[in-house]
User: Fold these one by one.
Assistant:
Number 1:
Amino acid sequence: MTSLVSARNVSKFYGSVRAVDDVSFDIEKGKITGLIGPNGAGKTTLLKAVLGLTDCQGSLSVLGLDPFRQRKELMQNICFIADVAVLPRWIRVTQLLDFIEAVHPRFSRSRAEELLSRTKVRRDAKVRELSKGMVTQFHLSIITAIDAKLLVLDEPTLGLDIIFRKEFYGNLLNDYFDGERTILITTHQVEEIENLLTDIMFIDDGKIILDASMGDLPERYVELLASGENAEEARQLNPIYEREVFGKKVLMFEGVSRDRLQGMGEVRTPDVADLFVAKVKGAAA
Amino acid sequence: MIKGQIALIRRELWEHRSIYVAPLVIALLLSLFSVMGQVTVSGLDHAKEALDIGIIGATNLSEDKRSAILTGLMVSLSVPLMLSMWILTIFYSLDSLYAERKDRSILFWRSIPSTDFETVLSKLLTALLIIPLITFAVIAATHVVVLLITSIWLGARGANAWHLIWTAVPLFDNWSATLVFILALPLWLSPFVGWFLFVSAYTKRSPFLVAFLPIAVLPLLERIFFNTSATAEAFFVRSFKIPLFPGWENFYSVFQEGGHLHMVEGAPLSLWSLIDLGNFLRSPGLWIGLVVCGLFTTAAIYVRRYRDDS
């Protein structure tokens, strides 16, 4: 397996504030990795470091390049959507296509035109005349038409309604992802993307608190719905987190086998969102 | 690199349409004024005779004198456009690195494979080269349009416009001199352009104020505390002393004596003969200015690259 992104002891300070704190991870080719974290956890800072938009300490290699010092080479093989408001509002759709065609060696105009023809985005419209959802469709069409090795999405669907959000991720999977490309994505709305992720990283307070493949989650984490004595018994097994739903206790365990919990109640694999809350609250406790 | 620069400069023209709209509007106004002026003058009954006498008088002038009058007409059309060019350059360079941060599109532009150096360079080239070239094209077109309008008007009054205008008009002389001047002026004022780019990249708000406050306040402070005027000299006096026209004073001699045309012996008739390009290129002020411009531009690149606006 080849690592597209390799971070070793990466830190980033803003004054005395440590936004990213001694982080190490690898992202392999062909993966769709979700970077999940609460506001101010350091997600965006980490992405900026990966994109070469900010300098950092430690060793960070993206596609074998130093992102900050070799940003131009990097940008030929990376695409990113930082969030929906970011396309210049004064530009016309055709102008932006002309521009990218001229400066991006890996951009396919015909592919972008094909993708755009499926949307209601008018070629002669200015970006300011498009709805927020259409701007995102437009941006995604551009990105999809670039033959990039790594796509970085930072809250790409922020402020969009549910229909556009579903469509966005549908298009991302169908048009963009082909098993060769790699995606790194952050979002608040974990539940919307958990089905498309292959890997997941949780970040909190500048530290990575979980780095796992989605396939490993059922083995590592298990949730038990129990009540009364059963809950009391299960508590002896050191749950990492406990909450209450409709009078029943929901206990989450890490590294406890399912067999061990059989008979105490309903055993299931936790949702990513619940796991996230458990890890963050657990880390804080 | 060159293909990328062309794309980046085209981008500037898309964003800042005033670069060509403003001179076109002024050119249109100048042409309209000339039509209106001629129609108004023709409509004045008591002026008709004087007008016809004037035209006859002009017909009898030597070609040199007609050429000098036409040069005066062309220069008077060029001047408003050159003034607007400089105002445009100020606003453009102050906006060029500020707008992309204000509308938050900078992250998009930085996701494109162009370096910060290439991007800032495209803005510097737009200010120093593209705006002047576009302005020059508009000036030349305005000359032709106004001369054509005048020819039609003269023709309608029964005069021989071909003889009066087109055999005498020193188009090439005027245009070559105008082009050299219009390209030299931004280079001479380039320290200001560099400073504006830097402010545009640096300031969090009101680039105009931030750029002009030091230019206004520094000479004042210097006067108060040191009772000297070196900054005032550098900012204001230097700006008007472009060493391109050592022969400028002689030019007025063509038009002196209460508006009556009076040819001074040996006075230069051509604009081009006023220009001393060698003198301009040899002047240390030009090169010091370009170095200052380069330093400010480098600082602007540095700020765009290293500032983290999150």
Note: The CA atoms of residues 78 and 139 of chain B lie 6 Å apart.
Number 2:
Amino acid sequence: MKPPVFDYYDPLTLEEAWDLLDRYGGEAKVLAGGQSLMPLLNMRLARPAALVDLNRIPGLGSVQVEDGVLRIGAMARQHDVEVDPRVRESLPLLVEALRLVGHVQIRTRGTIGGSLAHADPAAELPAVLACLEGEVVATSRRGTRTIPARDLFVTYLTTSLEPTEILTDVRFPLPPPGTGWAFHELARRHGDYALAGVAATVRFADDGSIADLRLAFTGCGPVPVRALDVERGVRGARPSEDLWEDIGHRAASALEPDSDLHASGAYRKRVAAVLASRALRAASSRAAAPPAAADEGRGGP
Amino acid sequence: MSTRERRIRITVNGQPREIEVETRKTLADALREDLGLTGTHLGCEHGVCGACTVLLDGRPARSCLLLAVQADGHEVQTVESLGTPEDLHPIQRAFTEHHALQCGFCTPGILMSTLWFLRETPRPSREEIREMLSGHLCRCTGYLQILDAIEAASRSLAESGT
Amino acid sequence: MNPDGGIGAAVPRREDPRLLAGRGQYGSDLRLPRMLSAAFVRSPHPHARIKAVRARGIRAYTAVDLRDVGSIAPRWDGDGFRPTAQRPLAEGVVRYVGEPVAVVLGSSRYEAEDLADRVEVEYEPLPPVPDLATALRPEGPRLHPDNILYRAAFAHGDVDSAVRAAPILLPVTIRSSRCTAAPLEGRAVTAWHDGRALCVWTGTQVPSLIRTALARCLGLPHHAVRVLVPDTGGGFGQKMHLYPEEVVLSWLAVRLGVPVQWVEDRRESLVASTQAREEEVEVLLAARRDGTLLGLRARIVADVGAYHVFPTTAALEPLGAAQILPGPYRVDHYAYEVLAVATTKAPTGAYRGVGMTVGVLAMERAMDMLAERCGLDPVDVRRRNLVPESAFPYRQASGLLYDAGACQEALDAVCRVADYAGLRAAQRSARSAGRRLGLGVACYVEYTGLGSATFRRRGMTEIPGHEAASVRVDPDGTVRVALSFPSQGQGHETTMAQLVADVLRLPLDRIAVEPVDTQSGPHGSGTFASRSSVAGAGAVLAAASRIRDRAAAIAGALLEASPQDIEWATSRLFVRGAPSRSVAFQDVAEAAYRLPPGGAIAPGLEAVEYFDPPPATFSSAAHLAVVEVDSETGAVRVLAYYVAEDCGRLINPLIVRGQLLGGIAQGIGEALLEHVVYDERAQPVTTTFMDYLLPLATDMPPDVREVHVGRPSDRPGGFRGMGEGGAIAAPAAIANAVADALGVQVTRLPLRPEDVLHLLDPGA
């Protein structure tokens, strides 16, 4: 299992990278962390004419919190983000999801942008982006555009990025203070892609009712799925064990997951309901208690 | 610079080495074939088994998922840097004391991961070790003796102040 | 016993330092001048006629080039066997996806794959045979005129009467899924001709048999074929077969006069290396109301892939299962029927626990079901049926003679160490808190160290049955040991040295166990079926004992004493009662090669011994698994695992534990994760490690508590074979534990979370 021949480039600037992608007109592939692309090359399932390696372009891996947004450069290594104190403090949901991405030996090379651009239907980061309604920044010679999560993921392993575009930044809007969060998934083994997974956030109003609740599923279809109807319908409701069960069930009932050798679509749907309930339970215990229930533990986004 | 072949310089186990490779050649194959360092093994060539793990600029990387040209100008550390049969590194000593290897094929990758891990987490819990080790496949040992060895290594490194 | 490194010492292994330092020499580590790399062009079809091979300017070798090379066609001496012959490169017809059709050579594997990409093969697809149903259909596609490659039937006692008389009849059908050994190192073969002999450097478990087979295929005398075994990254039975690639590489080396190397990649390993298990076992238990067995009937049908494998044949797996099925239980009436059925899948070969894993799975599930039917605890129903200690040696209804079987003791011991009653109580209180814990027991006996009588009786004519060892003392008093049985991780470099150290009272570092090489080492059967500590050790002990006697004679001559009066201390020999009259072993050795005057000493100090063990030596054990099942997702976690094992005397407790843990990991894999999947068109689906899931550190229980019971065997050294136990019993123990947790019937493995949920809630 050795890669086929290709033309290899490791440009030092983004502009050079744009030009290379333009020159090869879709026959070139971008090499970021390599954790998804290299296996395909080794197995000769991908035979690009050229590889454009982004790893020597400086400045693409920064992490900043600014104006309520966590901005991460696309080439930031997953492990670096996972252990970054600013990320742990501002967006622990992302940290919890990252811990489930493969194994640490993958995350030392794998990148945030790479995972999103690869768009595996059972990956964790796309669900987090969808949950938080984040966006990515794509650049080329023709300029810069911002793509929100709902427009980014098109189908299996396919985003709306043009083959000549490079994803350079990822933006995660931080949930308002007091929002509880959780990422739950079921995998065959630790670190495997999810059979089903869900990113959940919940925030309570002063009167203790639900002010905002979000569920983004992974492994349940070609792209991450938000349970928008259920989310809207549940605003103003009072939290309870029964409610979490009910929400999980209703959110999952709208899913149409695929079957593969690891699990059938029916099973994934069923487990999605269970995971959603469990995630909401965990998220609500992390949410800031409304002033009415003064003794509750403090949460944070 | 050619797009199909490059002359590259990698610092391997502290030594600057210069080789000429096809750009499609993986770092694993360059280490094994061009540099004669066959201690790094290939178990799957798709990034799952971890047998090929080396340290790239001090951090673990699957060398089957890296092109050799990507290591140009960087530092690579392989199992050959840890110790010799006559003078084993404390981690290696802990492995033999606890029978943490049988066929030995997966072992070099685990040693390199462990080297990095114990620097990052000098006093790991058994659960933390188990989680780190889940990034490596071993078909022979059933893992428990490896956990024992890494626990013991963390203690001996802590004692010696390493 | 030499406390420093003799039998029983938990010494660190001699091979560890070089393996840890990255200085192992594995199959793909060998680099020779002018060496070419091979890549195979393999069939993408499960069944097809080969119409044409177009290589377009590339030299691709095909069946035409190898027309004078013999086939892989293992012989079997007995009824019911339909032979097959696999051409080293497929000739005319391909019968499984991955079957080698052509081979190309390049200066590197990269180049060889580029060349292989350019070879076009034209196929005319034929109907696939993806499963047993298709294979057994009267008008279905035929692979080898008949798709039934082996059939056997056996009866002892009167099962029909037992069935008629039995108040309880329990039919059970167990399906075990296809697995593969998946050693971390794939196969690797390097072949060259050194001017005198074909040399084959291959990670094989059976070097003597490979030499014999290659000599036969290539029409060479045995002395012109040399098999060298490098460090081998795991075997587990998969590397005990002769593969087409070995034949092809050997032919190329002879034909081209340059070294050639082929390194299997993981996709080839998962698709084209031998696979395992995949049997359907129908058992009928006839029992009394008190849960004691009256009789047993079994029908075992195995899906054995496209060809017989050399040397064990397709008969091995189902026949082994049938012969072990009654296990450690008192069964007076037993009848079985066995079928090995060909399909268009990779051939089935040996894999740790071969035959026994499936036999134990079926019987132990049946015993739990019997317990439930009779309202008994699973441990009680076993106690009532286990052959008592006093009855050994015991001739089981299968015809096997058990020299020992410590299952009563093992079952008691495992219940004690696990606190069985406490676990049951914990299970009850967990249940009331909504948690589903399960306890699963598996008892087994295991045939190990098989001798020639067993292979002959079975009809397995290609396996000799003996092992051999040479022990050679060099003039400086160090010792070299050459074995007929290589290691793939079992530590022979240490354990066999420990035996010699024990007999000759030498420190371990004075003893070197050499890599196995058919040119310099003696002929034997190889390493498989837990035979090294019985068959191998028997040969090593015999050779070392001859050295001991010769050394005593030399010492006697040097000390002017009778050899009968010579005693041994560490590195010294002395006269009984007069310890100051002594000579260093080193000096005894030197005297053997630099003869002192007087003519009392004959030159040389070496011995070669061959050992044919008794037909079988039985080990036994009881395993107990504790699992927790998430009843909402079906996920299963192994919380705890206990083992009480009788493997006789231990050579090295660290190594014994390692073998046990490794086997348990594979058993957990087989129970919960591993499944070689072919689709309905016989296309392999599990072609990467993302699809075929091996257990990780996070899949193991936190600990495995292990106790040893039983007594030494009466074989040399008192050893019994071990190594397969974890793989034999863990699937059954976990299947039983899941069934116990949920109150459902488990009849097939692996148990994916979805399968568990389906058992709980079939309607959903």
Note: The first strand of chain A starts at residue 7 and ends at 9.
Number 3:
Amino acid sequence: MTGQVCVVVETLRGEVTELTYTMLAAGRRLADALHTKLAALLIGHPCAKLAETLGAADRVFCVDHADLAEFNPEAYLRVVAAVFEKQMPRVAMFGHTAMGTDIACGVAQRLKLPLAVSCRTFSADGAEPQYSALICGGKIIAEGPLPAPHCLVTVMSGGYKADEGRVRKTPPLETLPVPARLDAVRTRFKQYIEPPAGDVDIAKQPILVSVGRGIQNKDNIAMAEALAKAMGGVVSGSRPVIDQGWLPTTRLVGKSGKQVKPKLYLALGISGAPEHAEGMRDAEFIVAINRDEKAPIYGFAHVGAAVDVLELVPALTEKVKAR
Amino acid sequence: MDSVVLIKFVPDLVEDLEIDPQSGLLDRSFLRLMPNELDDHALEEALLLKERYGGTVTVITVDTGDVDEALYTAVAKGADRVVKVTGEGFDQGVTDRELASIFHEVLRGMPCELILTGTQAVDDLDGFVGAMLAERMGLPYVGYVTKVESQDGTVIVRKEYPGGLTAEIEVATPAVLGIQAAEKPPRYVVTSKVMEAMKSGSIDEVEAPDVSVEDGVTVSRMSVPETGARAEMIKGSVQDVAAALARLLRDRGVIA
Amino acid sequence: MSTASSYEFLDKVIKATPDGAYIRKCLQCGTCSGICPYGFAMDHPPRSLIAALRADDWHGVLESDTIWLCVSCFACASVCPVRIPLTRGLLATLKTEMLVGGSIPQELQTALGNSRRYGNALGESPRKRADWTKDCPVPVPVLANHKEPVDVLWFVGDYGSYHPRVQLVSRAMARVLHALGVSFGILGPEENSDGDTQAFAGEWGLFELLARKNIKAMTKYAFDEIITTDPHAYNAMKHEYPRLGFDRPVRHHTQFLLDRIESLKGLFRNPLPMRVTYHDPCYLGRANENNIYEEPRQLLQAIPGVELVEMSHNRALSICCGGGGGGMWLDGFSWEKAHARTTEWRVKEAIAAGAQVLAVACSYETPRFEDAVKSTGNEGKLVVKDVVELLAEAMFE
């Protein structure tokens, strides 16, 4: 993989993460633009099954060992650093996640390589390939060259479609020997803890389908829940909905509830009064559905539509489900 | 359980961020700086560990200007020692890599079991301070930690993954932890206590060591994303809107 | 040092105000608890709190968090037969103890933290404190740029500066002052929260910090008097700022405008044929016996067409909007505990009195009562306006 673009694959509980496909999409385009190949570095156990959807890569390098079945920051860091030391890619991509960032920084420091975090997109029009990162809570775009001869990046979602990087085909696999001593690792994975069966923490959800007075009554909450489920999110609400008892207080967004910064905040029938706005205006992408074109929420939502909430929700659920 | 908490100051996003037309980078004259929110959580976790297991808490920050209040607040909350690293040009900003190098040198004389810092900060560009520091020090690192428990010679941390899943991970100490959230929200300390700390407490000053930092990434320009003043309205029937929204969300990678 | 016993605490209460020792005379009559708007939901409403302290149940008192339901409305203090300074002495001091002990609802912590860092409870950029003037149809001089003495320094306050609804009140006030030819200026970005509500939430240290910043700014400029649209600022500057070395005449905007009632009458253009009821703000009326009750009413009655009606709880018996004592930043908490809102109670009273308009005179009240109009399903039946907004409506297009 020397001189190539390499995606460090992320897996969680036996599945390749969505972000990995985004990275493969990014990596494919960058590799093509640089006239080089796209490699994937897969660490896990067993690797063969995990490689089945990595067809976007030209070759997958596997490091397969029982001790590497679950993510272990120290062990994975040692493996990646050891692999790269022998065959250093032009650009190595890590996910901007609890897994990717744990190891990217350590690898960058160990191999004394430049690292750019929070990257969204890359380009290679001119002489040097460039990165574009979104920092400071989404308020600043930072751009610069991807330094030669080698550099690392962490990649956030949103710049490329995951579908573009998801190819159900096992590419050529090359097994690498476990290059590092794993017994001297001082970190040990013990167990996963399932999220509690009780209510969710809306502040940790990437997608919130939020309902306001416009949902009109408790029975309509179910349709919002169906939409949320289809999108992979949960339902939250503004104060009037919670006050009526249609949703528990754990779902309240706003001054008296939770501050949330999800990737998507879908505001259904919410006017956007300051007390609510305070809880959600930093969301990455805000979609507002409110019949009142003058509703304050349109002042800070990114996209909106002045249609009937009760009609839109089932229609949108259908479109979301139809892949 | 002696611990060290590393704090860095970052732009306060309440203020508008402006780009300096000359340098093409963030205009620092307009910036208001504040302690990184996750570093506040790291301090809270350290204080909770002190309450549970005893030991001391030392807080260290690099003097980017106006850091004293935050340090005295840490004292009022229960920190045993607070240290300010002074040096030329820090008010112009310090990269994560530089911070990792500086902290590495400063920590040479401070043995401790745990080093805690916020797992990331809003202005991170060339890495995460804690993770790079750990590597420089040859210590194990776990990031996105939301809980720490001590056991002889090791700690058991709760690490957070996307989607609410967490895992228990055992790490031998000394270790560096990147804190995502303390077990409790950072405590409030009454203003009168902070005033008291300002009168009776003291801040240790250490001169910044000479550090060598390898080349990091360069930023050739910064810009502010274009945002319309109001939402882009989708027109059409309910079906049109539903289709357009679904397409939009797929394009953005928000839904599959 | 944290307080360890009831006696230590009572000592602090006694020292908190000049007549603090009156607490020893408590008859346990229960009038305070009876009139308290949230007494029904408290573990220790005032009478019971004093009883607990006398029984040395300090830990029992500290274990409860219902003190945060107290909205520092002064109702208890105003009816106490032996004149114990309950609000300022007992309740505010207990809140301080709770803060020192680390017991504070998260919502309140955010507001206090914002006040510390940004000089306003809303967490807005201090640089933008005068941005509301940009949309204003008349010029609003900011003293730092104005460079000339003015007759009046208008202290706008946090909500008047930053909250979209209350900015409309500020705009109306600016237009009225301009039409009257008053020479005035505002502090703009140099202004900080008056600190009054933060003080009554237990944070006297924070109050002093904010007050000193305001005093430092105000002493730079030449003016004859201070007027404010915010009764909390009025209360703080009248009663607390003097002990910090700043003692200048301060009046509420309704008092100032009443002085000019003849000029105002000459400027009324549009009659307002409506039944209006006036809500007495706690900090204009009961608090510290400020007793400003008639001036706002006289202003309203001067507007042609206005018919003034009274709610059953008026003047000294007025029911608090729930914003004081930190209440402005504890709505989630108080709903959880009490499942009742004083604002809703008040809105129902206004409607029962036959009012079409609920007139107010405090920056907290316009958003709070408008919210209650919605949550009680009375949209379209009752409108909430500050007194100065009604004056403006009568004067301008």
Note: The longest helix of chain C spans residues 164-179.
